[in-house]
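step: validate -> pass
step: tokenize input -> pass
step: predict -> running
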Amino acid sequence: MVMALTGARRNVFILALCQALAMTGNNILATTSSLVGYSLVVDKSWATLPAAVQMTGTMLAIIPASLLMARVGRRAGFTFGAVVGATGAGLAMLAIFRASFALFCTGTCLLGAYAGFAAYYRFAAAETADPAFRGKAISLVMAGGVASALFGPELAKWSRGLFDPVLFAGCYLIILGMCVTAIVLVQLVAIPRLAFAADAASRPLRQIMRQPAFLSAAVAGMIAYGTMSLLMTATPLAMVACALPFEDAAFVIQFHALGMYAPSFFTGSLIDRFGALKVMLCGVALFVLCAVIALSGVHLAQFWAALMLLGTGWNFLFIGSTALLTQTYKPAERAKTQAANDFLIFGTVAVSAFSSGVLLAGYGWAMLAFLVLPLAAIILGVLLFYRRHRILALAVAS
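step: predict -> pass
step: emit ->
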């Protein structure tokens, strides 16, 4: 038992490092992709298309990634995903040198596909942990994103002028190096091949998805991630439009990412103590507070506070929904259930990332901030529905 637990913790540590590399690359993308798009495209309402294409790449990779890992294992799947990411980073860098918007979108799409593979790091950690350690394992892998908050924007600022006067090309060279490092690290992960194939007792996906717990986890994850993407994608453009420098935008994204991942050190413990539902309800409250602050003004302090709260609310909702999702499937059902959940989430994120630029160009920052309120209300309604169902189920059982 001690050896098994030690092995699980070793896997979690390595997976957290891989997550840190993937999320740092995503953080650099979040800081720079809309600005690169703005510089390459004539119609500025398309500036966030690279971010939207990135999320589309994630959505399209989610199901194939899960099915591939079911066949060849987690290690080989993660390796392939990192190779795809390295290719995307190389294409994005080449696109900036050639001033090609289409090629840049191709690169960000492949980087999005890499993120689709990296999304399974948290599930891989859960699979090697016993039930008592599972919530913390998911949380600790997500905590690898703290490195992305600390280093992502700083690396973006440092590498922005690496190939001066061609701005931002150096950022994608850094991402390329991170993908190569992830390829090396993932070879050290020791995850046993688990039985993904369907057995006689495996339920149809439709039946799994009709469970109130699945519906609540999926809808909350979709809207939470979509809402976060809606504001985060537009933030650098909105700040530059308000005459704030790029360094301020990088600073705000840095603290937003800290809000996203730093709570992961204790979110798992909160879920173990209070339950996923209560933690997720706290996330909804933080979303509402984020909207109120964002609507109060467009100074640096308001952008900073709103994005910090947005990130923390996302953390509570996303990790809570992931923990809730793990209660909805049996081992033989994990591949298709995880794939369906993340396909729905990243499909929503792709739509929100594209809508972000259009809404910002057409209606301004205030409209984006206001939209957080009805979206938070939908999450609240879903969580209250699940709470009511659980209370009724316990009453019937007793």
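step: describe -> The mean pLDDT is 87.
step: cleanup -> pass
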